[in-house]
Design a protein that fits this description.
By secondary structure, this protein is an all-alpha fold.
């Protein structure tokens, strides 16, 4: 990976970690799917005028939007509304071992002993956190957030297969165009209180929507999909290792959260497992999925 793209890639966990913390504040005022719908609508409104219509892969983008955005964010941010942002930042790291597991099941890849050990360590770290007596009331939120990590991994595999046919900004713009109404329909079906939320939202809520739409989505995902299209997944994923560290820092600074020692120990174990996965050497016979 070129140094310029590496620097761009490191901007992604910064914007996402801050966005995770900002979203936690916004979820006090907006239902999760409604918040995500406004976020993606705003990102699409800004970007769609500057990119072409990807007619050759609109069908693929519809399913990527449904799986990798609508369902994924519905699970992740509904879970986040029930747990601390710092804990959510740790749980979403399961997207890495889930990605490896999916590659084994569906692509028949052979991950090697090091990645298998890393997966077991990562899941063990989450088990440590889930076993803490102080978090028993947050287990359902952890389950939803972890399920979102699994669906996110599915979405990344789906997007990688078409990433060579469109640039990053085009991808995120049209995912926004497609996902925003999907999320709105989901909100109308599964959530309540949307009108009251719009009427009573404060500057914190609306500021969060602006950040999530313009910075976290348009800028963050635009950079992510651009770098992902130009480099192997295994070269890009390591930059996300600093995401939970930054999320914990932002949540302590902006939300006043104080993660317990048990959560920090479990998070460290998860990070060690993820590190083994992303830095493990590929076998000579392995090839990356097309």
């Amino acid at each position: 990976m070129k140094w310029r793209e590496l620097l761009l890639a490191f901007c992604v966990p910064v914007t996402w970690a801050l966005g995770f913390t900002v979203a936690k504040a916004a979820l006090v005022e907006f239902p999760p799917l409604m918040l995500m719908s406004m976020r993606f609508f705003l990102a699409a409104l800004v970007l769609v005028w500057f990119v072409p219509i990807p007619r050759h892969c609109l069908k693929d983008l519809f399913w990527i939007s449904l799986v990798g955005s609508t369902i994924q964010y519905g699970l992740t941010f509904t879970g986040l509304s029930m747990i601390d942002a710092s804990l959510g930042g740790i749980v979403v790291q399961l997207e890495v071992p889930f990605g490896v597991l999916l590659a084994v099941v569906f692509l028949r890849e052979q991950p090697g002993a090091m990645r298998i050990i890393g997966m077991l360590i990562s899941f063990g770290g989450i088990a440590i956190i889930a076993g803490l007596p102080s978090l028993h009331g947050q287990l359902y939120g952890m389950l939803l957030t972890g399920s979102g990590a699994l669906v996110w991994a599915v979405g990344q595999i789906m997007y990688k297969k078409i990433s060579g046919r469109l640039d990053g900004l085009t991808g995120i713009a049209w995912i926004g165009v497609i996902a925003a109404p999907q999320m709105l329909v989901g909100s109308l079906i599964f959530e309540t209180g949307q009108l009251d939320a719009l009427v009573n939202a404060t500057w914190v809520g609306w500021g969060s929507v602006l950040y999530l739409g313009l910075i976290m989505t348009a800028v963050g995902y635009g950079i992510w999909y651009t770098v992902l299209a130009r480099n192997p997944v295994s070269h890009v994923m390591p930059v996300l290792l600093i995401l939970p560290v930054l999320t914990i820092g932002f949540s302590m600074l902006l939300l006043g959260e104080r993660p317990s020692q048990g959560v920090l120990i479990g998070g460290f174990v998860v990070l060690c497992g993820v590190s083994l996965i992303v830095f493990a050497r590929s076998r000579p016979a392995e090839t990356s999925p097309s």
